[in-house]
UniProtKB/TrEMBL annotation:
Residues passing through the membrane, by range: none
UniProt xrefs under InterPro entries: Fido, Fido-like_dom_sf, Fido_containing
Protein name as it appears in the record: Fido domain-containing protein
Limits of the Fido domain: 190-341
Annotated active site: H278
Keywords annotated in UniProt: ATP-binding, Nucleotide-binding
GO molecular function terms attached to this record: ATP binding
PANTHER family recorded: FIDO DOMAIN-CONTAINING PROTEIN, FIDO DOMAIN-CONTAINING PROTEIN DDB_G0283145
Keyword flag ATP-binding: yes
Protein residues bound to ATP: V231, P232, D233, H234, D282, G283, N284, G285, R286, L287, H288, R289
Amino acid sequence: MVTPRHAPEPNLAAQLNFAFRYEGIDLQVLVKLFAVVPAADFESIIKAKPTGGFSRRLWFLYEWLTSQTLDIEDPGKVRFIPALDPEQQFALAKGDLSSRHKVVNNLPGTPRFCPLVRRSSVLQNYASLDLPVRAAQAMGKVRPDIMARAAAFLLLNDSKSSFAIEGERPSGPRAARWGQAIAQAGSRPLSVGEFNRLQHIVIGDARFVRLGLRHEGGFVGTHDRETNMPVPDHVSASSEDLETLMEGVVAFSARALAGALDPVVAAASLAFGFVYIHPYVDGNGRLHRWLIHHALAQANYSPPGLVFPVSAAILRNLDDYRRVLESYSAPLLPFIEWRKTDSGNVEVLNDTVDYYRFFDATAHTAFVYGCVLKTVEEDLPEEVWFLQAFDRFNTVLQDIVDMPMAQVELLEKFLAQNEGHLAKRRRENEFKALTDEEIARIEAIYSDAFAR
């Protein structure tokens, strides 16, 4: 809150100056403003103070967003200033110089796709935790063989969780294939072709789903049972805009990496931007979560060999996940004009591309940071603890009875399900070869090995 004496004058220059100083840059507002206010008005504002920081940022942003050149002369020898104030919004640490405006372009994306994130106190606190270092330190205290087993479990668990979020239970091979795709995230540069390849892995049997970028409208929601009228919770980007938007997503990924943008900011912006665009008929949700892995891996944010199981954390917090998704998609709905198609789909009638190019991803970044924190503080330590306990259990168990590993795993599962006791049905079936004395000793071993 500011006092009345700070209120800007009721004119365009004063209002914009106030917004830049106290609220940061909102590209969605600016692109609409630049479309309706004559260029001559902005030229007058800039020429009034041609060397001022506000004027040069406004000049740069106008030409960057519109691709139109204003009639402004070189401001002369002045120091470069950043397009984004890095104390207000997350920006590239390594921007490129615009010598015409004497501005450092530290915007994380391009005019085709550039979500922005405010530097809130919540995100400042998350960033100060230095989660990659904490994860690496935790891994360094664990035997490498156990760490490798923990990483393998977390990877497969994340793959299964990503399907579960969509209400699917994939076969073992299908979950394993997607797990391999997650493990390779960050190893190949993004492209539309790479997205298409990943969609094929996600879908598996493509006989009933059209692969590649969709050629029709799209929405997330339901249909009225009587009229078959679409009832959207979210309307996807128009199919005519998909090519330019996806090129923007690809460019954002490369620019964020080269410019050392905070990896979690990059991950949230890419992933949620992608899912709002919804470029495919099917597979968008899993590709959206894969993008989180991609952004973190390509920036070496996660320790080598370890995938942060973001999908598993999301699955445990589905209500928060939906709230974050709807924090932008729900307020956007009234601004999208559409009509029903004969196939029960939607056809977008107005120009909506800028809604998917520019949005505030602050809440989305906080959510992803929370998922990564849960991995470091809960998922990884829990899996390491389980493996260490299991190894203790198995070592002593083999002194009582020589049992194959598959049977040991089954025995541990049954004991866990029944609070450390082997149920009568299991004694009489799978483990009828064990004596009562052996079972009593095994239950004691289990209790001791898995004691917290």
